[in-house]
# Entry
Amino acid sequence: MISEKNKFKAEYFFKGIPVSPGVSIGKAFVLSGEAVKIERKTVADEEVEQEIKALLEAIDKSKQELVSDKTTARKRIGREHAKIFEMHSLILDDPYLIDEAVSIIRDENYSAEYAFYSIIDKYQRQLATSKGEYFQDRAADLRDIKRRVVRKIQGDRRDFLQKLEGSAIIIARDLTPSDTIALDRHKILGFATDLGGKTSHSAIMARSFRVPAAVGFRHLTNYVKNGDRVILDGNEGVVYVNPDKKTIEYYQKLRQHIREINEQLGLLRDLPARTLDGKDIELGANLEFTDELETVIEYGGKGIGLYRTDYMYLGRKELPGEDEQYEEYRRVVEKMRPYPVIVRTLDVGGDKSPECISIPPEENPYLGYRAIRISLERSEIFLPQLRAILRASAHGNLKILFPMISGMKEVREVKEMLEKARQQLLEENVPVSENVEIGVMIEVPSAALITDLIAQEVDFLSIGTNDLVQYMLAVDRGNERVSYLYKDLHPAVLRVIRDVVRAAHRKGTWVGMCGEMAGNPLATLILIGLGIDELSVSPIVLPEIKKIIRATEYSEAVRIADKMLEQTTAEDIEQFMMRYMRKKFKDLIF
Ligand code: PEP
Ligand code: MG
# Structure
């Protein structure tokens, strides 16, 4: 959304969805499509041959990829539709096209990506302006080919994000977890993307980078140029482009205010997350990258409530081996000892597609080949991970969590696999902890409805609201068009949480929450009142959540939760909580 605030001062204001708090002021670095904006870049004479080689290799790799895409497509959507990949391959075989690209690199010193991009672009435009569906379809084919090859050129050099010279605010169409992993996080002042929702993984990663971020701007990349001065307000989800003096001054003051709040919150670091009337809430941190462990400790995290091991698989071509995983898990467990570390087994698919695990393109990736479904099908991936986790269990307080469980059959299968891994290790005389608690994520509605059954089979449950909300409300968590419907305070969500907690407690099983709702300060009182035993949140919001818990009577939280369960819309609940929290916590930002 764009609203021109003041045309004469050339200040533009854009509104998106806030996902990571804080304010950044800096220069914009613009990425468009899934890769960097193509610049008309030239290279030195001595680099020309290297550019040609890069182009030819990228074309070759694209053709190999097309062969495997074709095989997959044939199996999934039939021989007829798979032909499209064959056609793309034929286009890439066209000697005229290749000659044309090579000659402009040689004659005009253009970079490989610019040469290829500009030639394909020329043909694509010609086709796109011709009338008729046939030509439109061919133009779309060319666009696809163009992206595929350019991505190869850029991706393989892995330098497109490293082109960032100083620190900058990244403005991108979208940032996949693999893109984000390629970033040098010390140079990132913040993210703002056209696509994405509150719980898309790029948002989660922004929080783990501890930088302000907002998503879902839709067309921001069309309006911001590389080098523009930008203010990113991650609390409100707002971007100012070329802000005027008054706006800059306002935000400089706000930044100072946020700094002061954070200093105050820092004083809570070593205090327990205990309500005024003495109820303790386990308050842990979510962990994506192991080098964030220091931050977790700095923010007062007493344990890791969700260790997303998926990030170890991203951004690499080979699967991580058992020993490498063991070393990594062991490092985390030792660092957090005596506090618990809940290690979640691989959860890729959806918006996370590591190069080292082949996940064919799908119509509905979030409903498809994902998480435990991959693990149970591919024991050569699952078993080494379970072995590595069990080996690490000997070094501290480790628990295992299984993602995307939808029924009891899967619960039994994962337990069998775990037992198999344990037996193997025992036979090899490898030490393993004797009492590793196992838990299941409640993030698929079917699992929520059979909590009573699942709770009998495991030691704990962890509610994954990021997925649970998207599946319950039928709202894609990463789709900015429908993000207005993505409400963690929806009455249906509150009812499910209430029922899951009740059913689990009846079986003596404790219940945590590791989805982003756990770190939503408007939800904290409700969750405590509903009886949640543990909250695992992004470290950046941990002190704030602790402050809320410490200032609350449990009996008051129960009263609020009951009152919210009587409301009929998410909007009513949000408004009530916003008013209540603003009144009670004047020094926090809601
Ligand atoms: C969730 O779905 O709430 C969750 C914590 O898992 P992820 O965000 O990694 O899907
Ligand atoms: Mg999930």
